[in-house]
Structure formats: structure tokens, C-alpha cells
Write a structure and sequence with these properties.
single chain, alpha/beta, Rossmann fold, seven-stranded parallel β-sheet, binds nicotinamide-adenine-dinucleotide, oxidoreductase, NAD(P)-bd_dom_sf, SDR family oxidoreductase, SDR_fam
Amino acid sequence: MTMNSVKEEASSRFEHPLAGKVVAVTGAASGIGREVARVFSEAGASVAALDINDDALGDLERSFGCRTFHCDVTNAEAVSQAFDAIGASFGRLDILVSNAGSAQQGPIGDLPMEDLRRSFELNFFGHQNACQAAVRLFRRKGEGGSILFNISNQSVNPGKDFGPYGIPKAATMALMKQYALDHGKEGIRANGVNAGRIRTGLMTDQMIVERAEARGITPHDYMSGNLLGVEVFARDVADAFLHLAQMEKVNAVVLTVDGGAIATSLR
Ligand SMILES: NC(=O)c1ccc[n+]([C@@H]2O[C@H](COP(=O)([O-])OP(=O)(O)OC[C@H]3O[C@@H](n4cnc5c(N)ncnc54)[C@H](O)[C@@H]3O)[C@@H](O)[C@H]2O)c1
């Protein structure tokens, strides 16, 4: 091998570190999931994008060349079928970014039980449905795999009246540790990201204005209320997932991506 070809190979590995890898992203049609689909595609991975929003999935296919799968992660049977289709389409799965979620609010003592259960279906059981289906695909190749959970810094620093969101997120952090513990010997890693306030479909511009007004601060100060004093973007969260996907000896770790706050920092 000549020096030039060594450099070319290294440069292509640097530019496309995930070439040959297949990643499934749930909730890929909007916000953080969409950025994950973009950065993993840019890194050379083949991306299977799952969501319930078919129009936005179509856009994702056109924009980044993802293969798209209509899939409600709260429906275990539908998840199983979607992952079978991913296996048939790509022949393998290397990485799952379990991202789909939404934020519910309400004071925990007054909350209709049904609201809490609905949130658990998406923000906890949705992850479990996707993970079980991914483990089945990882095992087919026998090469292990990487599960990446989109948790939230609410899992360690609950917000007032955000119980229906933060409690299943805390359970999802426990789920991450359980996958690392039970499946590490099979070469399956499990890690997570705890993001802070990110401008997406879940945290809209209007919500940001309302919350800032309620606190008597500007939307800019609300979004950059962290130790660095800067806004954190969906792209920053997607980059964290990309790095975790490549850190082959990192397991059972939560990376906090919120610009820093002592209340959300982990030991
Ligand atoms: N935005 C934030 O401030 C923030 C902070 C921390 C963590 N998160 C987490 O990031 C993840 C993504 O949220 P986002 O902020 O990008 O929101 P978003 O609303 O922009 O995107 C969520 C996506 O999930 C999809 N989805 C919803 N229910 C689904 C289901 N049952 N099956 C499949 N797909 C479904 C939606 O269609 C949408 O495309 C969530 O798990 C959320 O809890 C968000």
C-alpha cells in the first residue's frame, strides 16, 4: 500500500466512519431524530427511518436518502414487523437510536392515570419494543450492536408538573443500564443522551416564548440558561449520538448535552 492510498483510506474512514453500518432511528421525521438521520447519513451509514408521520418521512427519504418505515413504536407487533422489514431490506442492523418520544405535563397528584399510562407507552415501552426487536436483529449477525437512547435531563432533574414525562424517562435510563448489564457479553452496548432544552416539534418556538415570558426573561436567555450560556441545538444532540456510536468500549453511559448544569450533571 502506498503512502497516498493509506492517506486516502484514512481520510475516507474519517469522513465516513460509519460506512457499511446500518442504523435504525425511531421518531426520525422531526427534531432530534431528523438530525440523527442526517448526521448518520453524512457519516456513511445506511439509515432506516421509522416514524408515524408519513409526509415528513417522505421528505427525509428525498433529503437524505433514508429508507423509511411507517411504525408506531407503542405497537410491539408493528415494531417487530418494521424491524423484520429492515432486516430484509439491509441484511443487518448495527445501531438503534431509540428516539421517539413526546412531553406530557400535569401535576402528578391530580393526573388522570390514563395520561401517565399513555406517556409510559411511548416514553418507556416504546423504547423497550424497539430494543427487543433490535436485539433480535443484532443476534442474527452475531456481531453485537449499539443501542442509543434519547432520554432527557428530566430523568435526573425533574421539572415541576413534568412528572408524566420525567418519570418514564427515569425508567428509560434504568432500561439503558439493564440492556448494558444483560447483553454486554453478546457485544451489545447500551448508552444514552440526556439533552436539555432543544428547539424542535416537542419544544416549539411558541412554547419557548411562553415559558420565557412566565419567567420574565427573553427567549434567548431561556434557551441559553446553562453553564456555557449558549443554546444547544438538535445537531449537537445528534453529534453526541454519532460519537457514542463510534466509542466501542463505552457502555452504560449517559452523556448530558445541555450546555452544563450542576443539577443535571451525573456522578
Ligand atoms: N426537545 C427537547 O427539548 C428534548 C430534550 C430532551 C430529550 N428530548 C427527547 O428527544 C426525543 C425526540 O424529541 P424531539 O424534541 O425531537 O421532538 P419532535 O416532536 O420534533 O420529534 C419527535 C418525533 O417522534 C415521532 N413520534 C411520536 N410518537 C411516535 C410513535 N408512537 N412512534 C413513532 N414515532 C413517534 C413524531 O412523529 C416526531 O417525528 C424525544 O424522546 C424527547 O423526549 C427532547
